[in-house]
Amino acid sequence: MREDLLDVEPYVSPQRPARYRLNTNESPYAPSAAFLEDLARATSELQLNRYPDKDAVALVNAIARHEEWPPEGVWVANGSNEILLHLLLAYGGPKRTAITFEPTYSLHSLIPKITGTRVLSQMRDEEFEVDLDAAVRAMTEVGPEIVMVCSPNNPTGVLEPQASIEVLLEEAPGLLVLDEAYIDFAGSEASARALLGRRNLVITRTFSKAWGLAGARIGYLLADPSVVEGIARVRLPYHLSALGQVAGEVALQHAGKAAAAARAVAGERDRVAIELQAMGLKTIPSHANFILFEVEDPPRVWRALLERGVLVRIYAGVARLERSLRVTAGLPEDNDAFLDSMAEVLDE
Ligand SMILES: Cc1ncc(COP(=O)(O)O)c(C=O)c1O
Q1: From ligand 1's centre to the CA of 207, what distance in Å?
Q2: Where are the alpha helices (DSSP H) in 129-286?
């Protein structure tokens, strides 16, 4: 066992059987019948006895068309987690440093750690935005090869202002990896996509959230083609299965449906936030498909919700989240069940 892994906790997102699963930010919408029909047709044409296209050319080209970005600057992998792993394998590693802004998605520090990269964690400011002064100071002092920013941030839902992204891009001595897993819930103007001409910007995306395909494991990045050339050196041969590749291609043919579902979820998110506020609870303004809210006794509320069949996310021992729970926006009836249960639990 590597010594530097001894203090690494394996990733856990506590799962419990529950009727309303509002804990992992998945889409509540199952793929449509039309999507499944097209997927069945496409998979029946695959030659599964053969290795897949190692460069996933058809999927890369389809993403490039969808994003209006050159295919040479697109990379696909098994979820955006594997995209982050590829980035850290190629650009992190021993004697290199990644900066993260906490609290954030736990893989932003776990993936650097497992690739032997030193992690420098900075706390976000009062509003859960990146503390720019502290970030610039740290970048100047440490010269990190990688700066990891999540926007909208998980688990707070906070969208990083475009002006901050520009400052970070300007000051980062290496890559700025901008995790936009939840960007489709944030409205059309929210993405930093317009800044992509900058050589050091990497935007990561996933089909797991707004696209409703968490089970298919597909993620991608958009970046300067030189970044993709670097990654090609660390990936395993045939890393993305033929099944994953066609699932992504078919999903892109149904992009309109996914966008409509994301809008519906965003509407429900806002409704849930308003209802929680009406119960007297503090909520963090969210641009994602979940809401972070504060209660006096999170373990009690978490357990009481679970007894009512509602599973939300709790953060034991995470700095700044000691009083927080996070709920994913589900179908209207899921959200009603959550809100009714919350009202009961707070009355107790
Ligand atoms: C911010 C963020 N990035 C990436 C991921 C990983 O997504 P994927 O399923 O694409 O690996 C998640 C999953 O919860 C996430 O919250």
Answers
A1: 9
A2: 132-142, 162-171, 225-231, 242-253, 255-278
Output the CA–CA distances (angstroms, integers) from residue 8 to 12, 112, 114, 322, in the order listed. Answer: 12, 11, 8, 21
% residues pLDDT > 90 (the chain):
95
The predicted-structure confidence for 60-116, as pLDDT tens digits, reads as follows: 999 999 999 999 999 999 999 999 999 999 999 999 999 999 999 999 999 999 999
Of 22, 27, 105, the one to substitute when testing ligand 1's pocket (max ligand atoms within 8 A of C-beta) is: 105
Please provide the DSSP assignment of 178-190 as one string.
EE-TTGGGS-TT-
Residue nearest to atom 3 of ligand 1 (CA): 181
Q: Which atom of ligand 1 is nearest to the CA of 150?
A: 1
Contact 209, 181 (CB under 8 A): yes
Q: Of the residues 254, 280, 309, which one is the last residue of a structural domain?
A: 254
Q: 315, 36, 328, 60: which is closest to 181 by C-alpha?
A: 328
Residue span of the structural domain in which 111 resides? 33-254
Shortest-distance atom of ligand 1 to CA 153: 1
The token pair at 17 is: 């059987």
Whether residues 13 and 103 fall in one domain? no
Same structural domain for residues 168 and 247? yes
CB atoms within 10 A of CB 115: 21
